[in-house]
Amino acid sequence: MADIFERLIKNYGPIGQHRERAHGYFAFPKLEGEIGSRMNFRGKEKIVWSLNNYLGLANHPEVRKADADAGAKYGLALPMGARMMSGNSNFHEQLEKELAAFEMKEDAILLNFGYQGMVSLIDVLCSRHDVIVYDAESHACIIDGLRLHTGHRFVFKHNDIADCEKQLQRAQALIDKQNAGGILLITEGVFGMAGDQGKLKEIVALKSKHNFRLLVDDAHGFGTLGKTGAGAGEEQGVQEEIDLYFSTFAKSMASIGAFIAGPKQIIDYIRYNIRSQIFAKSLPMPLVIGNLKRLELLKTQPALKDKLWENALKLQNGLKQKGFDIGKTDSVVTPVYMKGGVEEATSMVTDLRENYNIFCSIVVYPVIPKGHIIFRLIPTAVHTDEDIQLTLKAFEETKMKLDQGAYKSEVIPQMAEA
Fold this sequence. Notes:
The protein is 41% helix and 15% strand. The protein is of the alpha/beta class. It folds into 2 domains: 4-54 and 302-403, Aspartate Aminotransferase, domain 1, CATH 3.90.1150.10; 59-300, 3-Layer(aba) Sandwich (Aspartate Aminotransferase, domain 2), CATH 3.40.640.10. A hairpin with an 8-residue loop joins strand 13 and strand 14. Helix 4 (61-74) runs antiparallel to helix 13 and helix 14 runs parallel beside helix 16. The protein is globular and about 60 Å long. The termini are far apart.
């Protein structure tokens, strides 16, 4: 009989196999100091492009005060227990009511975490007879939710409406054959890697020909898109046609938690059947009260979103003017596509961090195909013009080194002294 631990030790996985070299630098790095556009990494200040603090609320004085006051008054234990049993409060219900109104839906339910919530949401919505149709570039939380689904699922090519309709037709044929079940279509408001919006308007138009319900994960659109910040559905003019709207507090709200908004009867069903909430402790009071303050600022201070977009466009336009490929992003998420191997990517990111004081995330094989590198930059409302200009200069110079083959050696570029 095989030993489970022995098997794990023999194969740490595609990312874990690099743990000895990567840990503490490329994986599990420690950013220290006050959250902002500049933080300390290994004792030296860096311009940081890796935090989803879109509106700069993490250290907003009103937010910090609300968090501190709630923590002092209630502590982290209250309310105790799961919400269904003993962990409900007026503040939880107030936040749900305000989120529903903001997203133009009848009701909403709070979730402790976005990832966990999406996995559990798919599980609670779909039976073994139901068929799920989903975008090929859906976030990992959606993919893991699909793994729990005991019925059929069909994937359509990313943002390909013709293929989406083809998969809807396949789903309908299967349902007709088994004479049971319905169709749930899942996509995203903004795809977090490439930054392109999901084609919600075109997908909604398919409802005139096909019978399905639409679930949209708008983690990156909530607070950043739409006239009021209500997200990609508002931006594209189809918010009312989205059946279930899902988002997390971890991006624009710079907090913890998530929510689902939709028709009251369906939210009630979810509320009484979603296992990740029924069997988990309620969201602590300081987080709930802090999220109420964040939502208030999101609604009442549009200048935060305006500043975010001002910075995002300066960064994106600057990159394009210097000849960089940033793909088809139409959100604030800013990918920079380059060619090169893993060693070149790690050498380049080390050069950026150590010699240019730029901290950003890289994506390489096995997440994306071999020979490709993606630098993923996340602009925020608190970045400065100086941050942007220094970053553009750093990318221009390091890209020149990459093209000249300077990073092909496995030797890491000379690190500047701390």
